[in-house]
Design a protein that fits this description.
- With 101 residues, this protein is an all-alpha fold.
- Helices cover 48% and strands 0% of the residues.
- The chain contains 4 helices and no strands.
- Helix 2 packs antiparallel against helix 3.
- The longest helix is centred in the middle third of the chain and has 20 residues.
- It is elongated, with a radius of gyration of 17 Å.
- The N terminus is likely disordered.
């Protein structure tokens, strides 16, 4: 769930004649490699950002009826947010910028 981007059907694919049932091939170039921070080392803002990315990816899988991948992403989104080491003042700092449902 840490990969940026999405795999969804959009108007750009339609413009090239693709339909929702088309097989689309993507060329992906790895630009850099590094170690990801442990969740416990992330700020609350970073946790929210990563959790949101996983949730959105889960939504994309859900729309494709790929229930297993959707559940995996949704679970990961929740795991990123589960912590005992977040201070109340950290939560208050991002509360106005974030709406979770």
């Amino acid at each position: 769930c840490l990969v940026e981007g999405s795999l969804r059907f959009d108007s750009e694919l339609q413009a090239h004649g693709a339909t929702e049932d088309s097989q689309v091939e993507y060329d992906i170039t790895l630009c850099s490699v590094g170690e990801a921070k442990a969740v416990s080392d992330l700020s609350i803002a970073e946790r929210l950002q990563q959790s949101q990315a996983c949730r959105l990816r889960g939504n994309d899988y859900f729309k494709l009826h790929d229930w297993g991948q959707a559940i995996t992403c949704f679970k990961r989104a929740l795991q990123i947010l589960e912590t005992d080491d977040v201070k109340d003042e950290d939560l208050e700092a991002v509360k106005s910028d974030c709406m979770l449902c």
